[in-house]
Structure formats: C-alpha cells, structure tokens
Amino acid sequence: MIAQGDSAEHEWVDEHAGPVVRPYAVTRGRARPVTGTFDLISLVMATRADVASESGLGPEHVAIVGLCQRMQSVAEIAAHLDLPVGTVRVLLGDLVARTLVQVREPRGTTAGLPDDSVFEAVINGLRAL
Amino acid sequence: MDFGPSERPAGAAPLPTAIKILIAGGFGVGKTTMVGAVSETRPLRTEEVLTETGVGIDDLSGVEEKGTTTVAMDFGRITISDDLVLYVFGTPGQDRFWFVWDELALGAIGAVVLADTRRLADCFPSIDYFEGRGTPFVVAVNCFEGAEQHRLGEVQAALNLDPVVPVVLCDARQRESSKEVLITLLEHAMKTREARRRAAGD
User: Fold this and answer.
1) Helix, strand, coil % (nearest 5) of chain B?
2) What is the mean pLDDT of residues A95-102?
3) Sequence-distant (≥ 6) Cβ neighbours of residue A53 within 8 angstroms
4) B-chain residues within 8 Å CB-CB of A27?
C-alpha cells in the first residue's frame, strides 16, 4: 500500500480528491461567465495559435486555448483539464469576450427535433463506422 | 462583443454542430460500457460541482454532506462528418440529480434506456422521465452473461410501454450491438418527429 520514494508525499491525494486549487480560485470567485451560456456540447475552437503573451490570462485560460487548437466540446475541455464544467464556462466567457475562441452552439437546444437530413446523416455515419 | 470570421485562422472551415444522445438506466446496468463501446475516444468524465442549494433538498434525507455535491457524467464522441459530431452521455444514476438530467436532456435527440432483466424496476424512473419530457427513447435490454433471456414482448408488457417504443436486445460491451441500438433510436426519433408533425398539421 505504501508508495515508495518521491511519490510517497502525494499518496494521500488520489485522483478522486479533485484539483488541489479550488474551482472558485481558478475563476477568481466568479460563478458565471461574463458572456455566453456554453452548453456541454457547444464546440470551441481557438482563434489564435498562442496566447501566452496576452496579459490578464491565467494558466487555465492558456490551457484551454492550447487544447482548442483542435475543436473540443465544453464537456471535453472540462474532462481534459480536470475542471468542473461551471469553472470552464467562466473561463470560456473570458476567452469569448477577448475573441480568443469561437463557439458553435449545438443544434436543437430549443424544443423540437432536427430535420430528417440530420437523422439520415447520423444513421449513415454510424453504419459506416 | 463580436467575434467575426476575421479572427479565425485563414482558410478554417466553419465549426461543425454537435448533437447528443443520452444513455440512461439504473446503477451498474452498463451505461458507461455502452458509451465506451461506441465512442471513438476512451470515455471521458466530466463533473459538475453543485452547491447544496442547487440540490433537491427534499430528497437528501439528511444523509448528504453539507456544502457541495459533485455529479459525474461519462461521455464519448463519434465524429459523423466534417459538419456533425455526435456526443453520447451516460446519465448520472441517482434520482436526486434530475436537474442535471434536465440540462443533459435539453436538446438531446433521443435516449437509450438500458435495462437489466434481473432488476427491471431500476429503469422505471428513466422511462418515466423521458415519457414526461417527450424525449424519444428506446429500451435496450443488456444481455448479461447468465441473465435470463426474457422475451422482449414480456419486457415491453412489464414496462407498460407505448407499443411504438422499440425494445431491443443488446450487448453493451460490443460496438456493433451498441451501434445498432443507436441506429434503432435514431430511426425511432425520426418517426416520432414525423408523427408529431402530422399531428400538428391536423
């Protein structure tokens, strides 16, 4: 059970313990994004390759831009960075306000189902997998 | 604040749209297994941290810790085409997280209710939920090894389902089988949409 060597000091914090920095510290106490709603499957893509030189961004902002060089959903960003979804929404709001990411809201967040062409595309896509 | 196309890298294609399907059912019925079977990536886990006031207080029964509650959701991704991405979310199993279900179900094109014939009643809350919301769903009976092979008609009767709701057998561990369940759901959702449109036109 006892881990050896240099890993021993981390032994009491396993992956279930969550991040050591509390989520509201990452967002500087903010619970809501400055702009946007960010569905779990809203798709996010960075508009710039590198934002490390931008002032006023935290390491998590920079990490999101890095991750979103390839398109990611809000849920994927949260999972990959091991941050709660609410925290990611706040950070994304900051990035949208600075036009550092673009966001595509999902289809059909309002009542009703998408049209047949979408269903057919998904069915054909699944069959082709 | 505006973010126009000028900010995007030159030549970038428009972002695809995303759609989602939910996988619901009782605890341990194989929701995450099915997510993993169809996902192109290993299933990811995302967490919502909720303050106590956000939780259904009536259902806590005094057993819940004070402060915050974490609700975990497992999900996977299937890239359908350049302009369409499908996400598959396993719903949190506990009834007291209905408000998380509300967020998940918003905009979902349909749901798979996974059932285990040994504990059929475990899927009742999921069925009630999707029936109440009008979300198209199918029931997929996960064939656990050694599980009694109920006839599907008996399951349909036991669940008191609308006869139009498909009930299928599946093996949630198998990609092909799980894919077929999703296709059955999509075909059912398409018919549901058509039926609603006709009803609205009358």
Assistant:
1) 40, 25, 35
2) 96
3) none
4) none
Identify the residue with better confidence: A16 or B21. Answer: B21
The Cα diameter of chain A in Å comes to 60
* DSSP string of B98-124, one letter each residue: HHHHHHHHTT--EEEEEE-GGGGGGGH
- Residue, of B151 and B196, whose pLDDT is higher: B196
Whether the Cβ atoms of residue B63 and residue B37 lie closer than 8 Å to each other: no
**What ipTM goes with this model?**
0.81
pLDDT (mean) for B135-164: 83
Which residues from chain B sit within 8 angstroms of residue A127, using beta carbons?
179, 183
User: In the beta sheet, which residues pair with residue B78?
Assistant: B86
Let me know the angle formed at the C-alpha of B72 by A29 and A67, rounded to the nearest 5 degrees.
65
CB pair distance less than 8 Å for B3 and A86:
no
Report how far residue B168's alpha carbon sits from residue B188's, in angstroms, rounded to the nearest whole number.
12
The Cα B159–Cα B153 span in angstroms is: 10
Partner B, chain A 55-84, Cβ-Cβ below 8 Å: 71, 73, 75-76, 78-80, 84
Comparing CB atoms, the residue among A102, A114, A122 nearest residue B80 is A122
- Are B46 and B75 in contact by the 8 Å Cβ rule? The answer is yes
CA B18 – CA A29 distance, rounded (Å): 30
Look up the pTM and report it. 0.83
